Amino acid sequence: DLAAFHERIPLKRDFTRQMMEVFETAANNGLRVKGITYKPEALGEANLVVYGVTMNLDGRYAGIKSFISDLQCHGGLLTVDSIALSSGSMTEESVSLKMQLSAYLRPEGK
């Protein structure tokens, strides 16, 4: 039922913990987080807060594939909105990833 689903969405105060889990997942896949930006936005009709997150990571292509796969097992309501890969060399396995995520959270006290 919809009310039970809504209760399983993490609270806004858990955003930092969720991002730390994402960083840990990246590190476990041999990736380095080079930068992160985020912007919160209220979704009033849905009674949710969504954080738009942009992450820049570097690592091996295999690690990036595993990282994206591992995000599917993330406990919160997290979506991958876009990914962009780039590489400075055709002969190296190192690539850069720019990823846009959305983390959906419940407001405090709701």
Outline the secondary-structure elements:
Layout: H1 2-8, H2 15-28, E1 32-43, E2 48-60, H3 61-71, E3 77-86, E4 94-105
Antiparallel strand pairs: 1-2, 2-4, 3-4
Helix pairs in contact: 2-3
In short:
By secondary structure, this protein is α+β, with helices and mostly antiparallel strands.
Mean pLDDT: 91
Portion in helices: 25-40%
Report the biggest beta sheet as strand number plus sense, adding barrel if it closes. Answer: 4 strands, antiparallel
Strand residues, percent = 35-45%
DSSP strand count: 4
Overall form: elongated
Backbone structural class: alpha+beta
The ordered H/E elements are: HHEEHEE
Low-confidence stretches: none
Radius of gyration: 15 Å
Strand arrangement, major sheet: 1-2-4-3
Descriptive labels:
alpha+beta, four-stranded antiparallel β-sheet, single chain, 4 strands, elongated, 110 residues, 43% strand
Explain what you see.
- The radius of gyration is 15 Å and the shape is elongated.
- It has a four-stranded antiparallel beta sheet.
- The protein has three helices and four strands.
- Helix 2 (15-28) runs antiparallel to helix 3 (61-71).
- Strand 1 (32-43) and strand 2 form a beta hairpin.
- It has helices spanning 2-8, 15-28, 61-71; strands spanning 32-43, 48-60, 77-86, 94-105.
- The longest helix is centred in the first third of the chain and has 14 residues, at 15-28.
- Helix content is 29%, strand content 43%.
- By secondary structure, it is of the alpha+beta class.
